[in-house]
Amino acid sequence: ADGCSEYPIGERWYSTTHRRTPIGDIVALRIDITARKAAEAAAANALAEQQRAETRLVQAIDSLDEAFALYDEDERLVIFNERNRELAGDIGNRIRIGMTKREVLEVIADAHVPEAAGPQARAAYIEGRLAEHRAGDAQVERRVGDGWYRISLRRTPLGDVVVTRADVTKARER
Predict the structure, then answer these.
(1) Cβ atoms of 166 and 77 closer than 8 Å
(2) Phi, psi (rounded to 5 degrees) for 133
(3) What are the angstrom distances between the C-alpha of 135 and each of 62, 70, 72, 92?
(4) What are 20-52's pLDDT values in tens digits?
(5) CA pair distance 43, 51, nearest whole angstrom
(6) Strand partners of residue 14
(7) Alpha-carbon distance 46 to 54, whole Å?
(8) How far is CA 50 from CA 46, 53, 55, 60, 71, in A?
């Protein structure tokens, strides 16, 4: 019968393949695969560690009081926390991973730039926020909807942009 099996003998791992020849004999080939098994185990451990680190980072980002968003060098939304969705209010569920910064700003403009202001005001809002984003280094306080927010944009060494947004409405009303 033809077949292949992998098994340990002591501290070593082997792969054995059995083949029947046309005249009915059986040929077996045994190969030491210990190095491959060690590499597979190391890769599995590295993947598990990477998944733990990613989970840890996501939990840390979600624990922030501030809204958090990370855009990659192509201006695509990579990750954001639940606080970001909460501060976005009714439009928060329309913001998705993979959207461009322009697409996110269009959603925000739909909700916060009054239609009566006209398409030029909407375009100016979007282009102004895009310019801030592309500069990648800004801290402003801005009225959005019914609240005031401290918005910080910082470029990372990889070219990504981190955006945080804190509700400062109560502090400004004092």
Answers:
(1) no
(2) -60, -45
(3) 26, 15, 14, 25
(4) 999 999 999 999 999 999 999 999 999 999 999
(5) 12
(6) 7, 32
(7) 12
(8) 6, 5, 9, 15, 21
Beta-sheet strand order (sheet of 67-71): 77-80, 67-71, 161-167, 147-155, 137-144
* 166 in Cβ contact with 79 (< 8 Å): no
Looking at residue 113, its pLDDT comes to 82
Prediction pTM value: 0.74
Write the DSSP symbol of residue 100. Answer: B
pLDDT in tens, 88-101: 777 878 899 999 99
Buried b (16+ CB within 10 A) or exposed e, 23-44: eeeeeeeeeebeeebeeeeeee
